[in-house]
Amino acid sequence: MTILNTTLDQNQNQNQNQNQNQNQNQDQDQDQNQKPDHEPADRLLPYPDADLLFVTELLPRQERERLAELRAFFQDEIRPLAVDHWNRGAFPFGLVPELGARELVRLHLEEDSSLFAGLARMELVRADLSIATFLGVHSELFTSAVKLLGSDAQRERLLPDLISLRKIGCFALTEKDHGSDISRSMATTATRDGDEWIINGEKRWIGNGTFADYVLVWARDTADDQIKGFIVEKDRPGFSSKLIENKIAVRIVQNADLTFDNVRIPFENWLPGTKSFIDTNGLLLKSRVWVAWQSVGIQLAAFDVAREYAVKRLQFGRPIASFQLIQEQLVRMIGNANLTLSLLVQIARLQEEGSLTMDQAALAKAMGTTRMRETVALGRSILGGNGVTTDFEIAKIFADAEAVYSWEGSYEVNALIVGRAITGISAFV
Ligand SMILES: Cc1cc2nc3c(=O)[nH]c(=O)nc-3n(C[C@H](O)[C@H](O)[C@H](O)COP(=O)(O)OP(=O)(O)OC[C@H]3O[C@@H](n4cnc5c(N)ncnc54)[C@H](O)[C@@H]3O)c2cc1C
């Protein structure tokens, strides 16, 4: 392999030298001071941060400045520690107080404009999907549930520590035998016994599940057969968690199998806003949109790495970014990212109006993640052999994308939601 490459390189070098001489002559003819076309221009590129459609310009100045600050923090403080922790499957607990001090949980609590919140969460994913997922599971799925579906007493008792990240939550819906069909076939049960509930069952894949202080567990009330949400504190007898190891994606996130063996909790640990599974709709609508934003963050992360590599990596004596085929691939990557981003601008507008439907959120998740899969594959390929080691970051991004494709309703399930909306026929079973 090496010999072949060397011979090829020698031949090509000769050709190149001739070509370069010709090019040099031409260049000199054209403009003595101009650099050859294949060298990256020194001037600033016209689209900072790959925002080709000036989406950030839609934000008012104050939000634009805040977004720039957040982006700098994510890129400077989070991105550099991600690969090492990802490789080791280790969670950076030391970072949590800083995330709390910056009140990043609020990005998920609908306190900002939908577009700003989306772009800010996208930027965190761009730095690292795992850390974004830790924060999102805690904020979007647990803290939002307490805020939207909890009682006044629960909100008062829990929210301050959740917002400052002094206490961490997780969201336990999926089971070993039930993922896509969880709303129909949930096996975990909650049985009322006087002033208490008794929870029995097993949950799978639960992010933050090894260390969360609180679990929001979804269980079928044996009295009326409806699915409801309950808060279980981690030290309740009968509760246990086991880390899921050997993942190929989001390796920093501590996903766990959880067991509830006759776990007794006080009656008031039930979230009163959850009388049936339909009550989770508002929550799942929001989290589905968040995952669509993840698909843009991942694409931009892949683009950032691939672009930087392509302008620096020399082959045949020129940066690979000077080859037409590589430029086309970079354009497809940034094009995919901007297509998804444009879709999300409209989704954010519908959210602001309060008219966003689950069909629309499912469309954004399904289409964003298909674009994402193509984008990360192109990015990985642009790095050639270096694309298969996490040392160059892209392999982490490539692998992480697979989790986004499957969670929050797999691609197929989201496609079926849209399919039902456009045909009037449910094809789930
Ligand atoms: C890294 C990671 C983190 C996660 N974190 C959490 C968490 O914090 N909390 C939580 O509750 N869950 C979590 N999940 C679970 C996630 O939501 C589920 O994996 C997802 O809903 C899919 O369920 P499943 O894995 O059981 O796949 P299945 O439902 O078994 O699906 C397997 C395949 O069959 C397809 N399929 C299923 N039904 C149909 C159908 N009717 N028509 C066509 N195709 C179909 C699916 O699209 C998929 O391709 C996480 C998952 C992962 C991988």
UniProtKB/TrEMBL annotation:
InterPro entries: ACX4-like (IPR045008), Acyl-CoA_Oxase/DH_mid-dom (IPR006091), Acyl-CoA_Oxase/DH_mid-dom_sf (IPR046373), AcylCo_DH-like_C (IPR036250), AcylCo_DH/oxidase_C (IPR009075), AcylCoA_DH/ox_N (IPR013786), AcylCoA_DH/ox_N_sf (IPR037069), AcylCoA_DH/oxidase_NM_dom_sf (IPR009100). GO terms for biological process: fatty acid beta-oxidation. Keywords: FAD, Flavoprotein, Oxidoreductase. Pfam families: Acyl-CoA_dh_1, Acyl-CoA_dh_M, Acyl-CoA_dh_N. Residues 284-422 form the Acyl-CoA dehydrogenase/oxidase C-terminal domain. Residues 9-31 have a biased composition (Low complexity). Gene3D superfamilies: Acyl-CoA dehydrogenase/oxidase, N-terminal domain, Butyryl-CoA Dehydrogenase, subunit A, domain 2, Butyryl-CoA Dehydrogenase, subunit A, domain 3. Transmembrane segments: none annotated. GO terms for molecular function: acyl-CoA dehydrogenase activity; flavin adenine dinucleotide binding. Residues 1-44 are annotated as: Disordered. It comes from the Bacteria. Residues 32-42 have a biased composition (Basic and acidic residues). PANTHER family: ACYL-COA DEHYDROGENASE (PTHR43188:SF1), ACYL-COENZYME A OXIDASE (PTHR43188). This is Acyl-CoA dehydrogenase. It comes from Cryobacterium luteum.
